[in-house]
Design brief:
single chain; 460 residues; alpha+beta; Jelly Rolls; Endonuclease I-creI; 7-stranded mixed beta sheet; 6-stranded mixed beta sheet; 17% helix; FormamaseFmdA; hydrolase activity, acting on carbon-nitrogen (but not peptide) bonds, in linear amides; Formamidase; FmdA_AmdA
């Protein structure tokens, strides 16, 4: 039988606001209506906006990064009803291809202001910044981070099936408990939020319900995957997703042209709008027969290749910038590895914000090297010399190049750099996280109690 054209399961528009497009949504909830139906065994093309719904522009200002509305983000395409899928099944998702739109061959990497989103290193680099990347075939380059060019490992940051009411209640309870117990000087979870909820084609009553109960799309979760930002879920990958509702209600979005391990600046990948091609197969009662309650995946055969002997690997340990010893804290260790790579790149003329952006989106290799040798966890970060058009391998003499600058806010020529942040946490040890503490969890208990009210309502 001759092959036929691959059907497009949906369309997105760059001219209509994302929150007015019925085939998109920005919450997880079982009552969001399906946007379309896909047959078991069918391959389709799914169009996706970038995760901000078009809030970030191709220009030389980071004002849009500073002012991004994070209540509107993660506009996902879907949910799609997969014929025959039932709770207890596994949905096998095979990623056949991912490409940017031909008319939009560019993407962006951003650092959010610490006051609006922040990121992994925001205690050191609290200012907003941005880099625009131009795509040419499999390669990308940026006017904001010059002398760099590399192939992308294109992938979706988010894919998953809708939660059941019971699974949703579990999410809201445990995240509400975390909010109530918070002693960090920052937001630690995102509870249900009615503001700027988009529930696809739902009527006003259902939309209000989704706003009260729906889970934010920011974190990945063990029951369904979601926002895991795994760069190896690229072309040829197979992902096994638990199904919790009739039809599975699969959604996808947050496409990346490239990403480093950890996506450290939060908006750290090269974010893009594009088209993903997926084949769907239902495995009846797969959660039982495969003994799977969380997603697993098989990586595809397509990945950029670099010479191991031309990769500089930085080591980080769970001793922070104040010299405080933390117990087997891989967050502290990875933060230190990143900071050492940023410090190293200063030798060649890059400023700290350019390097921070680069580590978020380039195909760096982050690994947990040792996690049993008390008290120090050891984490490594590999930076490939072949990303650059000059030699970054260790040498005695280095000639600094004119690296220009990334984009900052209007009137700002250099973002703030804090060498030793978190004085109130100095000397305080952690067993995970290693971030600045606050005196009391002011307001957190009240938020946690509000989330518990939502959970109680879901269980009725």
């Amino acid at each position: 039988m001759a092959p036929t054209a691959i059907r497009r399961a949906n369309k997105v528009s760059f001219d209509v606001p994302a929150d007015q497009q019925p085939g998109l949504h920005n919450r997880w909830h079982p009552d969001i209506p399906s946007a379309a139906t896909i047959k078991d065994g069918e391959t389709v093309k799914i169009e996706c906006l970038d995760w901000t719904g078009g809030q970030i522009k191709n220009d030389d200002s980071a004002d849009d990064m500073r002012n991004v509305d994070l209540t509107k983000v993660h506009y996902l395409s879907g949910p799609f009803n997969i014929e025959g899928a039932k709770p207890g099944d596994i949905l096998l998702v095979e990623i056949m291809d991912v490409q940017p739109f031909e008319e939009r061959p560019w993407g962006f990497t951003g650092i959010f202001s610490r006051e609006n989103g922040g990121g992994f290193l925001d205690e050191h680099f609290p200012s907003a910044a941005k880099a625009i990347w131009d795509f040419e075939g499999i390669f990308c380059s940026s006017r904001h981070i010059p002398h760099v060019k590399f192939p992308g490992l294109i992938h979706p940051g988010i894919l998953g099936c809708a939660p059941s009411a019971e699974v949703l209640a579990t999410w809201n309870k445990r995240e509400g408990d975390l909010i109530a117990a918070n002693k960090l000087d920052r937001q630690v979870a995102n509870p249900p939020q009615p503001i700027n909820v988009h529930a696809g084609s739902a009527d006003e009553e259902t939309k209000a319900k989704v706003g009260r109960e729906g889970a934010r799309t920011i974190p990945g979760r063990p029951e369904h995957g979601g926002n895991c930002d795994i760069k190896n879920l690229s072309r040829g990958s197979k992902v096994y997703l638990p199904v919790h509702v009739d039809g599975a209600k699969f959604s996808v979005g947050d496409l990346h042209f490239s990403q480093g391990d950890g996506e450290i600046s939060f908006c750290g990948a090269i974010e893009m709008a594009g088209v993903i091609t997926i084949n769907f197969k239902v495995i009846p009662q797969g959660q039982t027969t495969l003994n799977l309650t969380s997603p697993i995946y098989l990586p595809g055969p397509v990945e950029p290749q670099f010479s191991p002997g031309r990769t500089i690997t930085f080591e980080g340990f769970s001793v922070d910038h104040h010299g405080t010893q933390h117990y087997l804290d891989v967050n502290v260790a990875y933060r230190q590895a990143c900071l050492r790579a940023i410090e190293y790149l200063r030798r060649f003329g890059y400023n700290d914000y350019q390097s921070y952006l680069l580590l978020g989106c380039a195909p760096i290799q982050g690994h947990v090297a040792g996690i049993v040798d008390i008290p120090n966890a050891c984490v490594t970060l590999g930076l490939q010399d072949e990303l650059f058009d000059f030699d970054i391998l260790p040498s005695v003499e280095v000639k600094k190049l004119d690296m220009g600058n990334c984009a900052f806010e209007t009137g700002v020529t250099m973002g703030e750099v804090i060498e030793k942040p978190g004085e109130n946490a100095k000397g305080k040890m952690s067993f995970g996280g290693g971030l600045a503490l606050k005196e009391e969890g002011v307001g957190a208990k009240e938020v946690g109690e509000k989330v518990k009210e939502v959970v109680a309502g879901l269980s009725k």
